[in-house]
Design goal:
148 residues, elongated, 70% helix, 2 domains, mainly alpha
Length: 148
């Protein structure tokens, strides 16, 4: 099976998962295996989808720590949804130690890619930061580059 075909099948399967339609999708261990294989190969979309599945329990179990790991890998590559989701996890302290500065950082990165939801959360958190904290985050953002 070609990588494009595998990817198409995984997008369809995970879309059904995240939308709540699961009959037969997760009953097929091959779908989970393919998603993990693509994520392991460094595919940022697959990493984000695997993080979502582990966070929501769509694969049968939840593992917040492992979800954070996959989100981090995707976010480090510049994946806007993974960046937004990392911001949310840091803001709420879910799977990580709660950290407003880290949440603000990841929301700011996602906002650069026109994530309206991330922008709203970033702006809400900005009021909680001191000028020195905002300046430190601005310097970190200026030097940030996606890993490939």
């Amino acid at each position: 099976m070609t990588k494009t075909r595998r990817w198409s099948m995984m997008v369809a399967a995970v879309t059904m998962l995240l939308c709540g339609w699961t009959p037969g999708v997760l009953a097929d261990p091959a779908s989970e295996y393919q998603l993990q294989a693509l994520a392991g190969e460094g595919d940022a979309n697959a990493q984000w989808m695997l993080g979502q599945a582990l966070l929501t329990g769509s694969l049968g179990t939840t593992d917040e720590g492992e979800a954070v790991r996959w989100f981090q890998l995707a976010a480090d590559q510049g994946h806007a949804l993974a960046q937004r989701d990392l911001g949310l996890l840091y803001e709420q302290g879910q799977g990580v130690t709660q950290d407003t500065l880290e949440a603000f950082f990841w929301y700011s990165l996602a906002s650069r890619q026109d994530s309206g939801r991330a922008r709203l959360r970033r702006d809400a958190l900005a009021a909680m930061l001191t000028p020195d904290q905002r300046e430190a985050i601005a310097a970190r953002l200026k030097g940030w580059r996606p890993r490939k």
